[in-house]
Amino acid sequence: MLQEYLTVQGSGSDVVIIRRSRFIGAAAPCKDEAEALAFLEKVRDEHKQATHNVYAYQIGEHNQIQRFNDDGEPSGTAGMPVLEVIKNMNLKNTIVVVTRYFGGTKLGAGGLVRAYTEGAKIGILAAGIVRKVLHTRYTATVDYTFAGKLENVIMESPWLLEKTDYGAAVTFQLLAPPNEGPHLEETFTEITSGQALIEKQGQGYVSLPLPS
């Protein structure tokens, strides 16, 4: 699994008017083709009267699935430019649909490429770009005598605290970013003198903002 990749945070859309044609760029995350096509159908349903609903998507750890469609625009002027925006922004598991309402003025091949490129960009920016970072999930169960000190350590650490359960003992549910798992285990073991029950619960991606 990749330690980190870029994708869009959620669905979003924006509009740009180019020589009286209205271009609506919409983007969404998709873990597989079924999700991508479901989003495409949703956009098509919202814009049944549109002249074109051009789309492209890129899916997979190694971008092994790449699809695009010009939806009636001249070949190479619409779907491919949208896909190129996704690729140039290094986004994975992302679909972009650019809807066009024709305004009466033809744009020519070069104008269409620029318009669909712009439509794709504004859709992606409206959806928001995030980093998906692979974290390891842990549960760490400790005696109450250690809980306060560990809570302070957690607050100052790069680990993410998902939940704290208070029962017969205190159980922390934590997410450790790449290369932080051993540090987490060592810290809990040291503070509790080996009494902590630490268990790995698998891995998953966490959405984080782009570095400023």
Give an overview in words.
The mean pLDDT is 96. With 212 residues, the chain is an alpha+beta fold. The chain is 32% helix and 39% strand. It starts with a strand and ends with a strand. It has helices at 33-46, 79-88, 108-127, 144-155, 181-191; strands at residues 4-8, 12-18, 21-29, 52-59, 65-69, 94-101, 129-142, 160-166, 170-176, 197-208. The protein is built from five helices and ten strands; from the N terminus they run βββαββαβαβαββαβ. Strands 1, 7, 8, 9 and 10 form a five-stranded antiparallel sheet that branches. It has a five-stranded antiparallel sheet with strand order 2-3-6-4-5, sandwiched between helices.
Count helical runs: 5
Q: What is CATH's topology name of the largest domain?
A: Ribosomal Protein S5, domain 2
**H/E element string?**
EEEHEEHEHEHEEHE
The CATH homology group name of the largest domain: Impact, N-terminal domain
Which stretches are poorly predicted, pLDDT < 50 over at least 5 residues?
none
Helical coverage, percent range: 25-40%
**Main CATH class of the largest domain:** Alpha Beta
Distance between the termini: 25 Å
Structural class: alpha+beta
Proportion of residues in β-strands? 35-45%
How many individual β-strands?
A: 10
CATH architecture of the largest domain: 2-Layer Sandwich
